[in-house]
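Renewal narrative, Specific Aim 1. Our central claim is that a sequence can be written position by position from structural information alone. The example that follows is taken directly from our test logs and has not been curated for this report. It begins with the structure tokens describing the chain, in the order in which they were read.
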């Protein structure tokens, strides 16, 4: 009789573990990794905001590197920022705080597109309000800030 009870206990344990692992893999993990649902205008704002990386920015003596240095965008209106490199040197746009957006990923041009070569662009869509300071990785004196505010329209 002991052998039957032990066998039944082992089978019950295996069924319980299998059910738990199935739930974890097919339900819990899927929900935990799901991206949040955001309004279409936040994901694809109608008015992108533009920043220029100015000519001569690679020189430490140049005071103005990003134009504008501080940019303000509004969620659902202008929260997509486009940096255009008009310099003759490659640059980056790199978050000072390693900001990782819930939809767009890491705020770092090196991670997504690499160096921003002359006459090329880097785009990033912010999906949360906040302040996002950034710099150029090879030229750390080049700094800027993106400020994203909520839309009250």
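The sequence written for that structure reads:
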């Amino acid at each position: 009789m002991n052998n039957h009870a032990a066998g039944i206990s082992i089978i019950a344990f295996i069924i319980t573990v299998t059910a738990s692992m199935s739930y974890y893999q097919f339900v819990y993990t899927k929900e935990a990794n799901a991206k949040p649902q955001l309004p279409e205008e936040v994901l694809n704002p109608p008015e992108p905001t533009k920043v220029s990386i100015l000519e001569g920015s690679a020189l430490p003596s140049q005071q103005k590197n990003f134009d504008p240095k501080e940019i303000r965008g509004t969620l659902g209106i202008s929260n997509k920022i486009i940096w255009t490199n008009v310099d003759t040197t490659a640059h980056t746009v790199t978050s000072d705080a390693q900001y990782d957006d819930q939809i767009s990923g890491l705020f770092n041009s090196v991670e997504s597109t690499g160096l921003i070569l002359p006459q090329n662009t880097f785009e990033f869509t912010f999906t949360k309000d906040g302040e996002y300071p950034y710099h150029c990785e090879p030229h750390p004196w080049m700094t800027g800030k993106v400020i994203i505010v909520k839309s009250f329209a």
